[in-house]
Amino acid sequence: MAVDYATHDGVAVITLNNPPVNGLGHATRAGIVAALERAQQDPALAAIVLTGAGKVFCGGADITEFNTPKATQAPLLGAVIQALEQSAKPVVAALHGVAMGGGLELALGAHYRIAARGAQIALPEVKLGLLPGAGGTQRLPRAIGLARALDMIVTGTPAMSDTLAQTALFDKVVDGDLLDAALALARDAGARPAPHPRLRERAIEQPDAAACFQAARDRIAVTAKHFPAPHKCIDAIEAGVLKGFDHGLAFERECFVALVRSPESRALRHAFFGERAASKIADVRADTPTRTIARVAVIGAGTMGGGIAMSFVNAGLPVTLIEADEDALQRGLATIRKNYDATLRKGKLDAQAATERLERITPSLSYDDLTHADLIVEAVFEDLGVKEQVFRRIDALAKPGAILASNTSTLDLNRIAAFTRRPQDVVGLHFFSPANVMKLLEVVRGEKTAKDVLATVMKLAKTIGKTAVVAGVCDGFIGNRMIEQYIRQSLFMIEEGALPAQVDRAIEAFGFAMGPFRMSDLAGNDIGWAIRKRRYREQPQHRYPTLADRLCEMGRFGQKTGGGWYDYQAGDRTAHPSALVDAMIVAHAQDLAKQTDIPRRELTDSEIVERLVYALVNEGAKILDEGIAAKASDIDMVYLTGYGFPLWRGGPMLYADTIGLAEVERALRRYAAQSPNGDAWDIAPGLVERAAQGRRFND
Ligand code: NAD
């Protein structure tokens, strides 16, 4: 039963009972209407209480029914709210725990509301690119005033019931038994003559409404540049203020329908569900027992090790940080201290919290100190020989059942696991730099990684605030394997006629925070150089553009050497196009044009964007084909959380779905045919097959 019905001394009590959050699925909606009807018929009843079973009043829509016919089956939420509002007997909504989204809109339809102290009140629809579509934009301003409602609806931020106690939202906020208090209020209300108060009839008193709307619009001008929903929230509230409740309600519905269909909302919902889906692994049951992780050891206090240690201590887990040499250890600790100092200065952390975090780190030069660790994360040099030594020592010392993780970016995790006598306990934890900041964590599943190890690290990822995505073993896993193709295309394009600044400008206009050349200059061009040198040995059949090597031969490693693809002035990260480098690129391109008989030509911005993004898509399709990623949304999560792919486009795979895979394939074939580097396009069979069948990556 999604809704329970009982009577208490002349009051009907309707209880939402749809665990875990009393979501407003079809059975719940229909149940409320039926219960209201039943209460009207019973002459012994004078009033009605609407409440929620368990820990919350109502968390809003039932997400398990999204995209199913039940979501749109009558009665819709608007009709349920109307039934509440029109009830001849007064309805008291009793809110505890959480009243969010449709749950709050439902309560706004009641005649009276009472809340438990500490209940979370929110209309978070905007976070999914929507607006409250069942009267929330009209009734909330009438309950809590225009300025506050604008803030809550436009940002989606929850407020505590206590902070709204003085508003017309609540007749009472109570500490004691909520149901008792609700019943008392209902009896009082039942004794009063009709009509009972309805929010739709309340005026919105705000003498400076126009200024309020302007201020709200100014606040979102930058942050919501690519998102229509916050703007629509303001428009809908304004419509109600200027033209009245009924007009506002109709306009709100119109906006809702348009937003549901918008690519931005689709992208945000994709990211929301993608994050949840990423935490589930098809063959690892949700009830798989997990191992206890109370103590962590991190080996290597370099760029990654320090940030990884910070991620754990920030979440309250003690870390032993082990280094091979004293100087490196002191350098690592100094960097960690500097990072906390910077956070302190920005006011994001207080001095005591920073000290506590630092104190949770125990520095050490001895591997003997890892014997108590439940999880050991290796972050030493990227060299298989060094990893072998380290893993053999860990294996000899770690306690039974400890999880042994490697942060390797490119090495074969199965080989690393084979250095131990317990490959089932070995897993890849691929953090991104800076590890204490970046949300993405690729969890690399080795051939022998045990299911409970996977379940444990997925849970742990949540504890330390990371978005974990499982990847199979391959060079570069999901993210770096795809970015390599993107960078390769960027290099081909400057050989064919573009310049770095044009490529960067085009892809930044698409929405990436930083184009490939600025990114390379930031990360250090020598990193890619080292990888390419290895590729030349290991995969001589793969052709690489040589311009990047020339740049490195000139010692132009990027920002750190004062110049890379661009010139930099000391102490300034602004990229200035380099006359020297651009001339080198043009000369190189002209040489190539002579050799290939394909003239150097101008590239349009749209070609640049397509070639870069479709390079990601094509490699992503191969990653799906090979089962390195289990689902397209996992790839999208990697790109949204780790690579700055524009959120409003939902990730490369969703973006390709939006364009249409047949169109993507046509473009790829066109580029393969026309460019002198066409042979670099090796179109993924999975892309071709889906395109032919009219399917999508995210089906
Ligand atoms: P780094 O050179 O900054 O740090 C490595 C540290 O390991 C050094 O401080 C070194 O003294 C220490 N070390 C070396 N051998 C050791 C041993 N036997 N025992 C204990 N400590 C030892 O390197 P990094 O950039 O932090 O990379 C570490 C690992 O993380 C590599 O596998 C790398 O591929 C991976 N990774 C790096 C990045 C990145 O952006 N830098 C991102 C993801 C993953």
Automatic annotation (TrEMBL):
Keyword Zinc: no
CDD domains: crotonase-like
Keywords, sorted A to Z: Fatty acid metabolism, Isomerase, Lipid degradation, Lipid metabolism, Lyase, Multifunctional enzyme, NAD, Oxidoreductase, Peroxisome
Pathways per UniProt: Lipid metabolism; fatty acid beta-oxidation
Segments forming domain 3-hydroxyacyl-CoA dehydrogenase C-terminal: 476-568, 608-680
Enzymatic reactions: a (3S)-3-hydroxyacyl-CoA + NAD(+) = a 3-oxoacyl-CoA + NADH + H(+)
Pfam family for this entry, one: 3HCDH_N
Ranges for domain 3-hydroxyacyl-CoA dehydrogenase NAD binding: 296-471
RNA-binding as UniProt keyword: no
Example of a GO biological process term: fatty acid beta-oxidation
GO molecular function, one term: enoyl-CoA hydratase activity
Compartments where located: Peroxisome
PROSITE patterns: ENOYL_COA_HYDRATASE
Regions crossing the membrane: none
InterPro entries the UniProt entry points to: 3-OHacyl-CoA_DH_NAD-bd, 3HC_DH_C, 6-PGluconate_DH-like_C_sf, ClpP/crotonase-like_dom_sf, Enoyl-CoA_hyd/isom_CS, Enoyl-CoA_hydra/iso, NAD(P)-bd_dom_sf
Record family assignment: In the N-terminal section; belongs to the enoyl-CoA hydratase/isomerase family. Belongs to the enoyl-CoA hydratase/isomerase family.
Protein's name in the database: Fatty acid oxidation complex subunit alpha
Organism: Paraburkholderia solisilvae
UniProt gene name: fadB_1
